[in-house]
């Protein structure tokens, strides 16, 4: 029989191995509560999915993710009257304990019932359901069943409302398909926000119709001198809509007043001296600044932010504000004051890297904390006045930090972040002198000076983004590395089936 291995005939003839149903304890992020029963439910050729009204898009999505590996038709039944005969039911039903993204999942021998207040909750429940099926459910082609789900009940809702990932498309440009692939992977872990770092010294990545050279010239290169690129407004809208179909909000960032060489190179009039610098393809930071004293700077920003606000249904625009080492303190404070107001004029809420907390902030403006120590006087002072924060400590949450000295990609200025390190902090207790109620959640930024392909993105993001997702979603009481690492290990076979190039950390007992 051994000599047959590797031939197509042997692969097809291999009998389906009996396999145990996935235990509820292996879901990432851990649900708020889960009880396992002795019954099992098996997805079969005739299984129908009931999803009417607001639940329909989620029902269609569930069917679309289950069809390839099962080969089943899985019709989505939109007629309310027939629901009782459909084994899988997605229902919108009021439940005050579940909030906007919570859900209840009940599995017994005859049915799988998912209920939530909102479609977003059904969508998060669907991610849990996918993880309760064998890893082969994630294959792109038909696999052997049986497709058995352990019976039981889950009631779940997030600890933090904001659970984000950031992708730097400025240092290296990534096309629409790569962004969509990353969106699909983050959605599995209930990440609900994708922050796109659209502009930096090395590139401007979104067409702005009123200032077209930003993209056509400012987007024409990247770190290392490659061709770069930019999203047309139609492509950006496509990303926004795709993310929305996964209940993920896009947050566009225009980094300023520093990190602006691509813009300054594109339009000479934006420079204080009226001279456009050359395009930049290196990896230094802190050398560029918009001209705070010039009126044209604010006309420029009003046009740019106006166009981006019109393209972006989500409530936020990220104004950057980090590492503005070529802007005086006084100019920086003036600038942040004006830009927040421009964002507000276009109906959006500003987010900025926590450096902005040295300026006077609008009550609605949110800070994103990136430093490596939890104590910061400006942040504490802003928090006293009510500012909320998103946490991305560079030594814990940065996805571009190397795992070990041997990691071939990434940087190490904030330290090495192995799997255990990425999990070993509590977002609710992290920032000194800031109430947990002022922490909106967590975000894992992936800076891309050294990141070039989707596989590179995946290798740096996984397992760490799944770990951060657990810190953001799961209740503090679930926090325990020894139990978590086993749960995380169960994701390994799934990533393999999905073709996700993850870092197989020796700290994790991979299944
Ligand atoms: C710092 S921390 C940056 C980015 C770099 C990153 C590399 C922060 C808000 N900015 O400009 O890409 O380090 O790790």
Automatic annotation (TrEMBL):
Q: Give UniProt keywords alphabetically.
A: Glycosidase, Hydrolase, Signal
Q: What is the lineage of its organism?
A: Bacteria, Bacillati, Actinomycetota, Actinomycetes, Pseudonocardiales
The Swiss-Prot or TrEMBL record describes its family as follows: Belongs to the glycosyl hydrolase 20 family.
Q: Among the entry's GO cellular component annotations, what is one?
A: membrane
Q: Does the keyword Signal apply?
A: yes
Reactions that this protein is recorded to catalyse: Hydrolysis of terminal non-reducing N-acetyl-D-hexosamine residues in N-acetyl-beta-D-hexosaminides
Q: Pinpoint the Glycoside hydrolase family 20 catalytic domain residues.
A: 160-475
What name has this protein been given in UniProt?
Answer: beta-N-acetylhexosaminidase
E.C. no: 3.2.1.52
Q: GO: which molecular function terms? A: beta-N-acetylhexosaminidase activity
Active-site residues (renumbered): 323
Give the GO biological process terms.
Answer: carbohydrate metabolic process; glycosaminoglycan metabolic process
- Which Pfam families does this UniProt record tie to the protein? Glyco_hydro_20 (PF00728), Glyco_hydro_20b (PF02838)
Presence of keyword Signal: yes
**Residue limits of the Beta-hexosaminidase bacterial type N-terminal domain?**
26-157
């Amino acid at each position: 029989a051994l000599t047959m291995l590797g031939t197509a005939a042997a692969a097809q003839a291999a009998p389906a191995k009996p396999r145990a149903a996935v235990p509820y304890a292996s879901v990432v992020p851990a649900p708020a509560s889960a009880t396992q029963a002795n019954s099992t439910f098996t997805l079969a050729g005739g299984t129908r999915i009931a999803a009417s009204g607001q639940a329909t898009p989620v029902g269609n999505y569930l069917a679309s993710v289950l069809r390839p590996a099962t080969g089943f038709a899985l019709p989505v039944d939109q007629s309310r009257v027939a629901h009782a005969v459909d084994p899988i039911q997605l229902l919108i039903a009021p439940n005050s304990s579940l909030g906007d993204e919570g859900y209840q999942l009940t599995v017994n021998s005859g049915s799988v019932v998912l209920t939530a207040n909102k479609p977003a909750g059904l969508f998060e429940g669907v991610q849990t359901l996918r993880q309760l099926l064998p890893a082969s459910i994630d294959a792109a082609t038909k696999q052997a069943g049986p497709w058995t789900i352990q019976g039981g009940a889950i009631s779940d809702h997030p600890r933090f409302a904001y659970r984000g990932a950031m992708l730097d498309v400025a240092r290296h440009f990534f096309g629409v398909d790569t962004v969509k692939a990353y969106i699909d992977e983050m959605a599995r872990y209930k990440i609900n926000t994708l922050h796109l770092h659209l502009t930096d010294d090395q590139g401007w990545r979104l067409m702005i119709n009123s200032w077209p050279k930003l993209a056509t010239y400012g987007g024409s290169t990247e770190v290392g001198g490659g061709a770069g690129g930019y999203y047309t407004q139609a492509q950006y809208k496509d990303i926004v809509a795709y993310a929305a179909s996964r209940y993920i909000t896009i947050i566009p960032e225009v980094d300023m007043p520093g990190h602006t060489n691509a813009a300054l190179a594109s339009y000479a009039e934006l420079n204080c001296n009226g001279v456009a610098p050359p395009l930049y393809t290196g990896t230094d930071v802190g050398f560029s600044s918009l001209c705070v004293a010039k009126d044209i700077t604010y006309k420029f920003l009003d046009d740019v932010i106006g166009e981006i606000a019109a393209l972006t249904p989500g409530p936020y625009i990220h104004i950057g504000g980090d590492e503005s080492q070529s802007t005086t303190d006084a100019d920086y404070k003036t600038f942040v004051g004006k830009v927040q107001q421009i964002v507000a004029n276009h109906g959006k809420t500003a987010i900025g890297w926590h450096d902005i907390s040295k300026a006077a902030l609008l009550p609605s403006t949110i800070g994103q904390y990136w430093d490596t120590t939890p104590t910061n006087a400006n942040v504490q002072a802003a928090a006293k006045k009510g500012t909320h924060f998103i946490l991305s400590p560079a030594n814990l949450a940065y996805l571009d930090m190397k795992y070990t000295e041997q990691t071939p990609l990434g940087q190490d200025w904030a330290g090495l972040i192995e799997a255990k390190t990425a999990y070993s902090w509590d977002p609710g207790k992290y920032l000194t002198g800031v109430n947990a109620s002022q922490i909106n959640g967590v975000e894992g930024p992936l800076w891309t000076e050294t990141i070039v392909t989707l596989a590179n993105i995946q290798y740096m993001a996984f397992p760490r983004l799944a770990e951060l997702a657990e810190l953001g979603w799961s209740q503090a009481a679930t926090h325990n590395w020894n139990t978590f690492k086993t749960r995380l290990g169960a994701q390994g076979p799934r990533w393999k089936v999905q073709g996700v190039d993850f870092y197989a950390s020796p700290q994790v007992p991979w299944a």
